[in-house]
Amino acid sequence: MTGIFHTIRDPSFPGHTPTSSNVSSEVPIVIDNGSWQLRAGWGGEKDPRLQFDNLMSRYRDRKLSRTSTLVGNDTLIEVGARSIARSPFEQNVINNWDVMESVLDYTFLKLGIEHQDHPICMTEPFMNPTYSRSTMTELLFELYQVPSVAYGVDGLYSFYHNAGKESSGIAINLGYSSSHVLPVLDGQKLAHEAKRVSWGGASSSSYLLRLFQMKYPFFPIKMLPSQAQSLMHNYCHISSDYNAEIAHALDKDVLSREDVVLQFPYAEAVAQEKSQEELEQIAERKRESGRRLQAQAAIKRKEKAAEREKELNTLQRLQEQSGTLSKREYQRALQEAGFSDEAQLKAQLKNVQSRIRRAERDALRQQQNQQEDTEADLADVDVEQAFPLVNVPDSELDEAGLRQKRNQKLLKANYDARMRAKADRAVEEAILHEKQEADERLRKESFSVWVKQKRELHKHLLDKIQENRRLKLELNDRKSHTSQMRMKSLATLASEPVQKKRRKGQSEDTFGASDEDWKVYHDVLNAEQLEDEGNRLVEEIYALEKQQLEYDPLFRQENTYDALNDPKSTLLYAFTRGVSPFDPESIAHSFQLHFNIERLRVPEVLFTPSIVGLDQAGIVEIVRGILQRHTQEESDKLIKNIVLTGGLSKFPGISKRVENELMSVLPVGSPLNVYSASDPLLDAWKGASEWSVTEEFKKISISRAEYQEKGPDYLKEHAFGNPLP
């Protein structure tokens, strides 16, 4: 197996979240309230106590007739609960406060808090709307009775944890709902220069899911968003040179290393094997059933023939009565037989005779199909003995003899046609044999000329086959140029007047005497005729390639028609099936996806948002714009600490890509330092935990008395928080 093989599994329940024990009321609770995950723990600790998906689901258990509220990882207990789980966030703004309340209840419960008397330090996104923050403040003070609360930006907390409080630099926070570029100069955020990119982890996983849906529109299993998210984090990476790598991403050597085969679960069909004796019995039963059906069909045909003969005799006798009965009596006889007049009788008589003749022809055709004569047998046939009635005058034969004579005439015509075809084939074989001898002489006497002619003929045949395919496709579209020219030719031929009698002085119609005259019919070929011509061309090129493979040293298997038209050699096949063996009959292969170009394309949106139609600048372009607003001294301070944080910063190669692109526009010798956060997912919580045990946290926190006096919109600005509105 080439490439990487990955088995897709449904999200599994990791186990119940353990409950922590309560601590002193002076220790603050630190909550990193992200739109993907919530992390909570005690201030001053190195790691959070809780980490779970920020989701809530109300699941109805029909067996127990009970509705349960599941939060976080508990939603994975039941597939139905996960499918209806809701997030408190819409993008990166909280808009579902019922869900947020349930998540906070769960958080405080798992932290072992019975009475909320701990200060709260909570993260929020950059430029969080005032309404969202004031509603959270009101919820914490009114419902949970917290003593104080302070808010800070998650990306700045991560920068604080990695670079220090008084440092300068740029925090590139690649979050779940959106991404932010936050410059910090001498420990103070430059909020007026910060920028947001409306792209994050949720957008990336959703984009990957859509790419798979367009790539495999008829895949039998639906990929879950959580599965797409897991694949994105496990296999996507940043390319150092996107244009160069994407140009060769479907090369065989690249696919053999980078193609990821995703195997989805499937149920193998168990085939019940039968013994040879059982198979023979089944085949014999089928043959016996066929013989019975044929016998029944023969009996029905005889019965129908007898009925038609009887009906014909009845109608003929009725017609003969016209000469013996009076006109009134004959009319009465017609009405009794169901006919209104004699014309209707004649029409019915003609219809019956036509059906009898049609049945005789069908029986004769069946007889001809059953008697398949060989070419040698045809040569030994004595025409006079085989068809004795052909030359007998009709006056000497009765009705039965006339029928046999008609049958023998048809048989003799068929025999004559086959004999003529045999003679034509003999002539064609002689001409072909002569051509082959001349070709063999040319090969032996002038090999270079022979090889040149064969190569030119091979190229000519390939072009004709390609043109044949193009014409077939265009004929299926009545508005195409080919279809319109075909109809024009037909209209021209149909509009030419037919000369019934040649007038004196007019030349004789010689159309068809020259081979050039028949080329007009090539312009009016239909798709079926083009198909036959295409098959003839393919047979001709196969025979030519057999010679070239044997004698032409430069003609190899990869130059043949089959190799050039093999679907496995196309980019589309490499894109959808990689280089792994694919069997259309295999159930396992039909439940496989190939993850190749998407590994580069999805993370590239961070640098080139126009890929998905997003009219925004990429993260590197934003950083360059920020640096252009500062002096050289300030720019040197900013580029000393470019910290990449957030879930998407875990893409391999992202820090090197940012460094290379910035290095190309900075002066030589610039102190550029680009690095990823020590823990991109947890550093925001860790930075908030470190800051929550400082004296600054106590000064910045909004106390319950200040809330009651100044209302929920009150906010104290600090280095890691949002600016005042």
Structure, briefly:
With 725 residues, this protein is α/β, with parallel strands linked by helices. It has four domains: 29-199 and 613-709, Nucleotidyltransferase, domain 5, CATH 3.30.420.40; 205-266 and 583-604, Actin, Chain A, domain 4 (Alpha-Beta Complex), CATH 3.90.640; 278-423, no CATH class; 424-490 and 519-571, no CATH class.
Question: How would you portray this structure in words?
Answer:
The protein is α/β, with parallel strands linked by helices and 725 residues long. The chain is 50% helix and 11% strand. The protein has four domains: 268 residues, Nucleotidyltransferase, domain 5 (2-Layer Sandwich); 84 residues, ATPase, substrate binding domain, subdomain 4 (Actin, Chain A, domain 4); 146 residues, no CATH class; 120 residues, no CATH class. It contains 27 helices and 19 strands. Strands 4-3-2-9-10-19 form a six-stranded mixed sheet, sandwiched between helices. Strands 11, 12, 13, 14, 17 and 18 form a six-stranded mixed sheet that branches. A three-stranded mixed sheet has the order 1-15-16. Strand 11 and strand 12 form a beta hairpin. This is Actin-like protein Arp5.
